[in-house]
């Protein structure tokens, strides 16, 4: 469904020399800096796949989505979506995809959402029967039937995002680009949006490319992730393999010392206590210790903790996905100098 080969986008920005004479000089001779927002990015996505597109701020995620949407032109490289070249901006292609930007609104602020939907029906020339069937399905899935006649500006952030999703899906696109769809939402709204996207993808086999800084979005929705850093792709594969690359090598051991009876002291575990086997030991202000431990040392560390003094609670967890990805970024930065 999506084929990207060596996609590159370079932005030129004017470098102004400070001061009055610097401004005058800029009238006759300008200097520019070039920044590669995306550099030689290549990947393919099959029909019906739900792929996470990850990277730190400024990595080039949104730029790549905008190139795939035809909003900006690539400097070099090629992209094909369902056989179309996005840069040609053909009407047939515009009917095939939808782009949702979590920090941008496509609905009219001072109109009820239902009126925006009616306008979109006219723009896309959607048959009335199809429009009603699609709208009824989306409204039911997102549970917003009571909000259709409310001014968009009076909706909560979570309700607005649900309406944005309905607007994007009214014409039944085959490809959906999502850029931070849950940004700023509360936990309940995030869960509702994730549940909707998962169900909709399974029902209609829509190809979805998702960017998000919330790892819960990625873990619940995506089996595959593409990671880019400084405009370059540094990982493309199964999410489970990415997790195991860090989680299989290390574990996180967290324990809370118990106060000794009658004294309330924690003499067995002073603030400077460290394990002989852990790679790192941290102690929080509330007295909880967090140890980063090689997987083959888990038993030894657990025994060491329990033998040192009384413990109120102890847990062993995998390394969080956020930490695995952060280490991936750090490693890529070192390799690239």
Average residue-wise pLDDT: 85
> Quaternary status of these chains?
single chain
Question: DSSP strand (E) fraction?
Answer: 25-35%
Q: Could you give me the name of the CATH homologous superfamily of the largest domain? A: P-loop containing nucleotide triphosphate hydrolases
The beta-strand count equals: 13
What's the SSE pattern?
EHEEHEHEHHHEHEHEEHEEEHEH
Q: What does it look like?
A:
- This protein folds into two domains: 243 residues, P-loop containing nucleotide triphosphate hydrolases (Rossmann fold, 3-Layer(aba) Sandwich), CATH 3.40.50.300; 87 residues, 2-Layer Sandwich (Alpha-Beta Plaits), CATH 3.30.70.
- 36% of the residues lie in helices and 28% in strands.
- The strands form three sheets. It has a six-stranded mixed sheet with strand order 5-6-7-3-8-9, with helices on both faces.
- Strand 11 and strand 12 form a beta hairpin.
- It starts with a strand and ends with a helix.
- The mean pLDDT is 85.
Helix/strand layout:
Blueprint: E1 2-15, H1 20-28, E2 31-45, E3 50-54, H2 61-69, E4 76-81, H3 91-94, E5 97-101, H4 113-123, H5 128-142, H6 157-169, E6 175-179, H7 187-204, E7 207-211, H8 215-221, E8 224-229, E9 232-238, H9 239-247, E10 250-257, E11 280-283, E12 289-294, H10 298-308, E13 311-318, H11 321-335
Parallel strand pairs: 3-7, 3-8, 5-6, 6-7
Antiparallel strand pairs: 1-2, 1-4, 8-9, 10-12, 10-13, 11-12
């Amino acid at each position: 469904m999506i084929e990207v080969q060596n996609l590159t986008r370079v932005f030129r920005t004017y470098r102004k020399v400070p001061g009055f004479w610097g401004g005058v000089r800029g009238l006759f001779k300008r200097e520019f800096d070039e920044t590669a927002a995306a550099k030689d990015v290549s990947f393919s996505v099959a029909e019906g796949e739900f792929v996470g597109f990850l990277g730190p701020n400024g990595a080039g995620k949104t730029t790549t989505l905008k190139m795939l949407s035809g909003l900006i032109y690539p400097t070099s490289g090629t992209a094909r979506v369902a056989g179309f070249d996005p840069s040609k901006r053909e009407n047939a292609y515009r009917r095939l995809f939808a782009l949702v930007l979590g920090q941008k609104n496509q609905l009219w602020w001072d109109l009820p959402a239902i009126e925006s939907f009616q306008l979109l029906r006219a723009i896309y020339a959607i048959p009335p029967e199809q429009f009603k069937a699609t709208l009824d399905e989306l409204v039911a899935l997102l549970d917003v039937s009571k909000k259709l006649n409310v001014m968009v500006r009076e909706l909560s952030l979570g309700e607005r995002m649900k309406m944005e999703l309905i607007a994007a899906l009214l014409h039944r696109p085959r490809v959906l680009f999502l850029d931070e769809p849950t940004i700023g939402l509360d936990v309940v709204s995030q869960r509702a949006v994730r549940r909707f996207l998962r169900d909709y993808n399974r029902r209609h086999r829509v190809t979805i490319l998702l960017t998000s800084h919330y790892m819960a979005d990625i873990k619940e929705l995506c089996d595959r992730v593409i990671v880019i850093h400084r405009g370059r792709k540094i990982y493309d594969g199964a999410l489970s393999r990415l997790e195991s690359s860090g989680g299989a090598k290390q574990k996180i051991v967290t324990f809370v010392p118990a106060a000794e009876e009658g004294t309330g002291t924690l003499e067995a575990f002073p603030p400077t206590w460290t394990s002989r086997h852990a790679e790192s030991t941290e102690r929080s202000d509330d007295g909880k210790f967090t140890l980063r431990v090689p997987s083959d040392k888990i038993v030894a560390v657990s025994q060491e903790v329990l033998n040192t003094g009384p413990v109120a609670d102890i847990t062993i967890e995998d390394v969080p996905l956020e930490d695995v990805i952060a280490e991936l970024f750090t490693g890529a930065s070192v390799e690239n100098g």
